[in-house]
Specification:
The protein is globular, with a radius of gyration of 23 Å. The protein has a 7-stranded mixed sheet, sandwiched between helices. Strands 1-2 form a two-stranded antiparallel sheet. It folds into 2 domains: 103 residues, Arc Repressor Mutant, subunit A (Orthogonal Bundle); 243 residues, Vaccinia Virus protein VP39 (Rossmann fold, 3-Layer(aba) Sandwich), CATH 3.40.50.150. The chain starts with a helix and ends with a strand. The longest helix is centred in the N-terminal third of the chain and has 30 residues. With 363 residues, it is an alpha/beta fold. The protein is 52% helix and 16% strand. Its EC number is 2.1.1.-. Keywords: Methyltransferase, Transferase. InterPro entries: Methyltranfer_dom, SAM-binding_MTase, SAM-dependent_MTases_sf, WH-like_DNA-bd_sf, WH_DNA-bd_sf, WHD_Rv2258c.
Length: 363
């Protein structure tokens, strides 16, 4: 009997080989992402884009970087088939198709997202300790998170805000032009608010965020741009259900901000409380199904679960919170919104954004 059980549990050799090949490919792709992150942050990819064929010396000179590091990165990106090389001339070239996806020269710079791999990897020891003792990793351990999220927002939210996101609410653009009171919850560096404050000078805007660093950055930029209809506050929204000012806002927005709150239901109840009678809540949040076996079919399912473990879930738990996680999904989001007192919940997808859903929510 024991030998029969052991035989039944023996792995299929073809399946082992297939998964081994997948792991090898994943390791290579992970290495490529680390190098792309370096290329993005150093400016090397931008310097290569549209520049023709360059030597490592010429590229180092034009960027002010150390030639030996530039050369090694070029070698690595060549091995990863991101960069092409002319061996006889000792020159390197970024193909136009790659430049369109790895620099600001195209519709979306995917090198921005490559930064999440080293950023989240930097807290692996902290997260591993949480596996052993519970708790979470606080926001302060994620030194560049708001910076990278601001770059992300600059691609998914800002270009689509006026023409695609705000029009999901019929008549909203006209009302903003006339003048509304607007709150953005979990505003981060406030780039969406700054854009709206510029475009709708007769409306009044407020941003709340837990991060003092992000709020300080936002205040400085808003002041430099002369946005007197905009203010930011450092605010812990764990008690927003009780601390929110009733009926104070005509529009409340959240951009990828609810699921990592310590107490997301309290935040949603506070949003409901703070809305005027004819107010509307407009939310962007991660597209998920609330079912992990179905999330496997999403284009970015696995990487978003990694973001959940390494950031969104753990920062919530660090505050003694619920730890809802990035992939709470449509079903749970709808459930939480209904528990918060909302009844009219409509979910939209936008062609430019396969990562997020857009919720138009009314009392």
């Amino acid at each position: 009997m024991a030998s029969e059980i052991a035989l039944d549990q023996a792995p299929d050799e073809a399946a082992v080989e297939a998964f081994g090949n997948r792991m090898t490919s994943a390791l290579n792709e992970a290495g490529m992402l680390l190098m792309i992150s370096l290329g993005h942050r150093s400016g090397l990819l931008s310097a290569l884009n549209g520049a023709g064929w360059l030597t490592s010396d010429a590229l180092a000179t034009s960027t002010g970087l150390d030639e030996r590091y530039v050369r090694e990165l070029l070698h690595g990106l060549t091995a990863a088939r991101v960069v092409e090389t002319d061996v006889s001339a000792g020159t390197y070239h970024l193909p136009a198709a790659h430049g369109a996806l790895l620099t600001d020269g195209g519709d979306a710079n995917m090198a921005v997202y490559a930064q999440f791999i080293p950023l989240l990897g930097s807290v692996e020891d902290d997260v591993l300790e949480c596996f052993r003792r519970g708790g979470g990793v606080p926001y302060k351990r994620f030194g560049r998170f708001h910076e990278v999220m601001a770059e992300d927002s600059g691609q998914t939210v800002l270009p689509a805000l006026r023409d695609h996101i705000l029009p999901l609410v019929p008549g909203l653009t006209g009302r903003l032009t006339a003048g509304l009171d607007v709150l953005d919850v979990g505003c981060g560096r406030g780039r969406a608010l700054m854009l709206m404050a510029e475009q709708f000078p007769d409306s009044r805007f407020v941003g709340y965020d837990l991060s003092a660093e992000a709020v300080a950055w936002a205040r400085e930029r808003a002041e430099a741009r002369g946005l007197h209809n905009l203010r930011f506050e450092v605010r812990d929204l764990s008690d927003f259900d009780s601390s929110a000012e009733p009926g104070a806002f005509d529009l409340v927005t959240t951009f990828d901000a609810v699921h990592d709150q310590a107490r997301p239901l309290n935040v949603l109840r506070g949003i409901r409380k703070s809305l005027a009678d004819d107010g509307v809540y407009l939310a962007q949040d991660i597209r998920g199904t609330s079912h992990p076996h179905l999330d496997a079919d999403l284009p970015l399912g696995p990487v978003l679960y990694a973001v959940s473990i390494m950031h969104c879930m753990t920062v919530s738990l660090a505050q003694g919170g619920e730890g809802l996680g990035t992939m709470w999904g449509r079903e749970r989001a709808r459930e939480y919104m209904m528990r918060a007192g909302f009844r009219d919940i409509r979910i939209h997808e936008l062609d430019h954004d396969e990562q997020n859903d857009y919720y138009v929510v009314r009392p």
